[in-house]
Queue: 4 jobs
Job 1
Amino acid sequence: MAAKKTSNRSKPSGKRKVKKVMHEYKHGELKSGRGGKVKSRKQAVAIGLSEARKAGAHIPRKKSSSKKRSK
């Protein structure tokens, strides 16, 4: 019998958190650090994913493209 394939999809709780953060970003309410407004869409997404992970949602990390070096 074949092994069950794991899913790389995030749970609905994580999606809700990211949706909430993006709503705050669009309305200019999202802050980062010591109260600085977030101006970058990418930064807003990163904040949402980070908060979702802290809340316990299973969201896979971004796969890094590590370069292999030969000696």
Note: Helices lie at 12-26, 41-54.
Job 2
Amino acid sequence: MDPVRRRLFAGYRLRNLRNDRGLSQAALAARLGISVSYLSQIENNDRPVTSAVLVALAREFPSEWAALGEDDSVAVLLGALDAATDTSVPRDRLDEDSLRRAIEQQPQLARRLVAVHEAYRRSQEQLRVLDDKVESGAGSAAQLPWEEVRDWFQAEGNYLDALDRSAEALAESLGETPADGIAERLATRHGIRVLRDDGDGRELSRFDPARRELRIGASLPPESQAFLIAHQFVRHEAAEEMREVIAGSGLASLAARELLSVGLANYAAGALLMPYTRFRHAARTLRHDIDRLRQRFGVSFEQACQRLSTLQRPGATGTPFYFCRVDMAGNITKRHSATRLQFARFGGACPLWMVHEAVAIPDRILVQLAEMPDGTRYVSMAKGLVKPSGSFARSPRRYAVALGCEEAHAADFVYADALRPGGAATPIGTSCRICPRPDCDQRAFPPAASIIEIDANRRAAVPYSFR
């Protein structure tokens, strides 16, 4: 018998999932599109979990649904449904009910469909990267060290298991609030004193190995000071783990390996201040409310956002988020993505993306429902931030951070509450160079390899069309 058709009784698992999320039976039934009485029967093991319910669970709770299946049959089913309804494929989409029956009858065909669709997506992503490089003039140049490190983190899925678990174990040894004991542990175990420096603010911190002193900028916010102390702490406590990661990274240049060392210490410091299990549980309980998370863990808004994008531990993943930081000029200076959304590697991002507006409006949260050219819709939050320079002689740093997830996770993302249910999405793209939308009034230039057509008798916001 095909695994998808196997009778699966998982009432206690479904009940635990509901209780863990703090949902009533009525709320969960509404999200799954079934009646309360039907859900009650499933939870009492009077009815099996059907493939249709499993698919609904997969879409509503992607982080937990796999625990309900005993094999990968539901993953194949969901992947095949995704492939068959991909809006980027210019053919009529199939009816989901009839498609589900066909997939259940031909499981090998379903696996082949999923594999072909994954290969198609990879090839499209590779093509976009190539187009972006060629059009930007970067195609012939070797990667810069920071690009090597950025791409290495992305290839690792922005999650480093050994380092994350090591930092979590350190956090547990420091108690409920790790930040409170780090400076003391630095002194007792490593003989390092932490001093506040009232200098000109140009340096955030400086470690003097000979004097065993770590000087932290006194003008920095408390959460920034705590992070810098944690950074120094993990450089000593997790040194061996970081050396092993660097040795196996395959990075070509010395500069890239040194940058990776800094990046690994930053990663471990975040994992220390926001231990995986505790942070993931709090994030789910608080529906990823950044302000409440940063207050609970004593971290900055940006640090909490970035940590959410790294919760990819096998068997205990968090909600898949993308995270990025954008400066006043529109440059993406930091980016992580656990979603299908990929950022422009070269050139500016889409001007319709609300993160650009957020840069100009500090300390205000903006929310947007956006749709990519392939039909994937994202609920995004962006906030403009200002970091003081510590001196009147230098301008403060102004930028915005953005955090987003696919619309399927909207119920678990508190910022989605500000959007009108079923409202229209803003059509955005990765960047103008690789965006195929023909009717965008904000287009800066045509996509790479397109054929431009100009009609001198017609005037529009964009002075050309393309094909």
Note: The first strand starts at residue 193 and ends at 197.
Job 3
Amino acid sequence: MISVLLALLTSASNATAAVLQRRAAMQARSSKPLELSLIADLARRKVWLAGIAMVVVAALFQAGALATGPIALVQPIFIVELPLTLLLSSLVWRRRLAPRTWGAVALVTVSLGTGLAAVQPSGGTDRAPTGTWVLALIATGCFEFALIAAAMRVRGEPRAALLGLAAACGYALTAALLKEAMAALGQGAAEFFTSWQLYGTAAAGIASLFLLQNALQAGTLAASQPMLTVGDALISITYGVMLFHEHLRLGWWLLPEIIALILIVVGYVEIAKSPVAAGHDEQSGRAPSASDTPNAPASPDGRWQTSTEGPGAR
């Protein structure tokens, strides 16, 4: 199916952007949450700009995927982004993956395929009624406000997790808006450029990117990435059902679907705990030294970090 292929290409592009963005985010000087100067600092770094270029490539692939398939099918495929990011990181920084990590990658991949085969998303429309959109936007705004308010009350890993989930909700909304904008494109250029969903896509995407950069800087991959990717998949499925009336296979199929979801989460946690994801060599178990990574910045607690992971945009 063309939508599946395009979704996989989106994940590969996001994985490349993830490595580049994470490297830039960990080198940024700003440490205050939700500070606009963070983006200004990142924009001066070529590695971050290269990551943004890959985000644009990913957006083009995603637009094609959403135009040809249900959002409840396309968005969950992005779960493979973290395994792809980890594999790319291990190649770029020449870090070896332990057998346990390889097993977690296989677990996530197989569980995702099994889960999608069980739920079998299908059907749906390309356009949602305006009234339904209004309700969806109100619910999304309230959810985002609650997450960001909670994130401002904590620090470290909890903040990274909450901002990661906020970014996930934003990316899911971006996908839903993009799907309807692509449907408008099918009716002509005039319809496309006068569609409010097109400009909503840009606004939601920029806001999500801002939340993502802060999630990356607030804590580790283990805190932000599972919330980002799994949250994006589940919220996107909700948008697909509520906005576009997409169909999911339920009944006794819920059992294998729930099992697959649990296994995906287990695999994700194991991958996120990988020393490679944290900037360590898996077989040596040590953090890279300054001589190993001359461009790596020191973290606030004095440990050297490498930027070998992080979610991309979607």
Note: The radius of gyration is 19 Å.
Job 4
Amino acid sequence: MLVALTDPIDPAGEAILRQAGHAVELAGEGGLDALLARADAVIVRRKLPDDLSARAPRLLGAIRQGVGVDMIPVEDCTAQGVLVANVPGANADSVAEFAIAQMLAIARRVAAMHDLLLREGWSTARAQSAEASELRGRTLGIVGVGAIGQRLAEIAAQGFRMRVLGHRRNAADLPAHIRYATLEMLFAESDYIVLACPLTEATRGLVSAALIARMKPEAWLLNVARGPVVDEAALLTALRERRIGGAALDVYDVQPLPVEHPFRQLPNVLLTPHTAGLSREAVTRMSTSAAEETVRILRGEKPRNFVNPEAWEAALRRRAHLGHPAPEVSPA
């Protein structure tokens, strides 16, 4: 069977696919559409077309090399019996450590010191230390306390002795070092706010002008989730008017970030190109886990991280229609 790659994966993941007897092909000059038309499965690192099933008539599975499945038209896949899987937790350490690195860079004024040392010299750069602060004793608010949020909270609370507030749909069973907070409380009391929630219809535009208005004057907003979780116009206004300390952004409404985007002109913004989850270790874990899920789906098994389990019966019918043998045992 043919596994399409929207983007390269780690060689360890590709080896798993080939050892299982599958051909592997990267979207190239012919474009993704031409590859999808022949593919039995696709491993996803970029947005797929909304009419995926029409463009990929042989497709049995769409597997996200990562966590967020907003890149996959899950509703269309479910209706047509295409199984969707992801690899939650594979990049949790990478994203959590990245958020900590951002907070440390902000608190200790690392970027400003580097720039001033090169441009204006030792004494000017060293003077920035007068505005530096520690993370210990500060309040961290985490929106989305899943695998990433929990790992971030663990590092912040146990490593830096920060007070941690968390918000998620299910307030029960939070670790002892995370205090549940409403969004209003979290935005009002936090010195650093990290967005680590998935992009859904419920979270699109979640960080509104009203919530931003609750932030402390020196508080920073860090987004390692998805750009559309934040009302970008409201954030720009708050940054321009210096009503908050700043924003550290790894994701944006439009990616790549346009060269003329006003974020690029603001001194109180720390910008990175959607790399929070892309350490060497995380890429290997995500690639191998996505490959393993792909092999399961192509064998006719349920994936371990099943995003659309309601599609299972339709998937069996689709598999039979395409002439593939049914699984010997249907896993529970």
Note: The mean pLDDT is 96.
